[in-house]
Amino acid sequence: MVETINAAVAMINVLESWGIDHIYGIPGGSFNSTMDALYQEKNSINFIQVRHEEVGALAAAADAKLTGKIGVAFGSAGPGATHLINGLYDAKMDHVPVLALLGQVASDSMNYNSFQELNENPMFADVSVYNRTVMTPESLPHVVDEAIKTAYNYNGVAVVTIPVDFGTKEIPAHNSSTAENHRKGLVMPNYHDLKKAMPLINAAEKPLLYIGQGCRNAWPEIKAFSEHFSMPVVSAVLGKGIVPDAYENFLGFAARVATKPANEALAETDLIVFVGSDFPFAANFFNPSAKFIQVDTDSTKLGRRHKTDVAILGDAKESLKRMVELGESRPFDRWLKANQKNKVNWVSWLRSFENQEDKPLRVEPVFKEIRRIADKEAIFVTDVGNTTIHAIRLLEMNGKQKFTTSGWFATMGNGIPGGIAAQLSYPDRQVFTLSGDGAFAMVMQDIITQVKYKLPIINIVFSNDSFGFIEAEQEDSEQKKFGVSLEGADFGKVGEALGAQGFTITDYTQLEPAFTAAKKSERPVVIDIKIRNTRPLPVEALVLDPETFSEEEIDAFKKQYEVHDLPILKELLKS
């Protein structure tokens, strides 16, 4: 007699074989057979009940960003499935593996205009690298195994639609998983391509290393490269935390979510070594005449963002290491010294505001408190908007801490879901979420999820009663500010109503006690901080260069943004 197994249980066993230990979703009638299998396998894989499927999908994407392992979320037929799409696009755009399981009506009800029936494949075609509807109960575990492999192979989203009746069937019991066979190797750089890069480095007078998330875990190689070739380092936002922020050669980040030293260096440089990144704003912020050496493991990205003089298909760590071995060292020179000084001035300027007791509060005192209570291996999940700008400038990460956000898709509302993912994946580490009031209000219901699963996450809300990032865009385009003001709320009390410990901060003196209590708390915390609605210094459009702007324009700019003791890079290079 042939041994059999329930098809849905066999599928869950495949998930377990790939090391998946939790899955996000909300039950629905079209997913009930899988829910029963999750119940049977509850000792091996945890079902995390969220209050909105979008939160589940965003959390799955954050799992993948923080751990490198595939994240998993599900939605039932119709609305449950469509709610997933935002989080899946976040995963697609930031190139991380996520599996989405979609419920479907029973196979004998499909194509009969049944209740909640939706032809799901076309809707998910663009977001996915794998998109299949299971056609037989026997193929269910196989299709899910194929989906996971494909998601890993292409660092993307795999979607599997499951007719609900298939999960109730008995199928032959045999192992459908290929997890043990999965391999991921290094793409080794070509020696001749590396050699071609050396004359460009030797000839450069103002070289710069730009890194992206492809350089994750390559801090020793980045440091060695920077010091061997006397190059300052700039990072993509998704690469924050790879290089310790205090490293003297590290200038920060480019574009609008950026730092002054980084943008100035990218405008002045004559050589960019571009490693492990696909920075979409290169045309706006990179010196177009600079020579360009690009390193990536994806050949389709080579030459995409800038005219490329040397293209190297290869692993970031290996490529950096081998270039150091091949190339002659460059002396510590005026270029590197000026950039180091520019960074020192920048940090001093940022820190000059951290003890000010303005009301409403400035953000700098808040980040001073975050730094004070943050553990050495804390994880920071920041939502998008002005909060991201403040976070990349004012969080001083040490190389052991982790950071993530919604990078390319830049979707509001990723903070709370990302915090849930971080605490589930790293239960012994301290987790912070940082959100603006607009973003927090989109997903604040899932503070309940943090409470339900006893996740002691510190959720910080920066309340300025505005979509501040968009308000600045309207300001730049000289249009009327419209649709950007928000009705205020007491999010500390909201947190309390949802079961968290809540604080609402309106005065500087309230910061220290609230953050001290948050560090000690064993349950989720919501700290709502009423900040002033002022624009962060627009380093993408500085009005400080006397060769370009009048003295009156510069003085007005300095007054508006409280700029002091902040000479531009051109001045430092002359001194």
From TrEMBL:
Alphabetized UniProt keyword annotations: Pyruvate, Thiamine pyrophosphate
InterPro entries from the UniProt entry: DHS-like_NAD/FAD-binding_dom (IPR029035), POXB-like (IPR047211), Pyruvate_oxidase (IPR014092), THDP-binding (IPR029061), Thiamin_PyroP_enz_cen_dom (IPR012000), Thiamin_PyroP_enz_TPP-bd_dom (IPR012001), TPP-bd_CS (IPR000399), TPP_enzyme_TPP-bd (IPR011766)
Gene3D superfamilies, alphabetized: 1.10.10.940, 3.40.50.970, TPP-binding domain
Top enzyme class: oxidoreductase
Alphabetized Pfam families for the sequence: TPP_enzyme_C, TPP_enzyme_M, TPP_enzyme_N
Limits of the Thiamine pyrophosphate enzyme TPP-binding domain: 383-529
Domain of life assignment: Bacteria
Positions of the Thiamine pyrophosphate enzyme N-terminal TPP-binding domain: 6-120
Family: Belongs to the TPP enzyme family.
UniProt cross-references to PANTHER family, sorted A to Z: PYRUVATE DEHYDROGENASE [UBIQUINONE] (PTHR42981:SF2)
Listed name of the protein: Pyruvate oxidase
Organism phylogeny: Bacteria, Bacillati, Bacillota, Bacilli, Lactobacillales
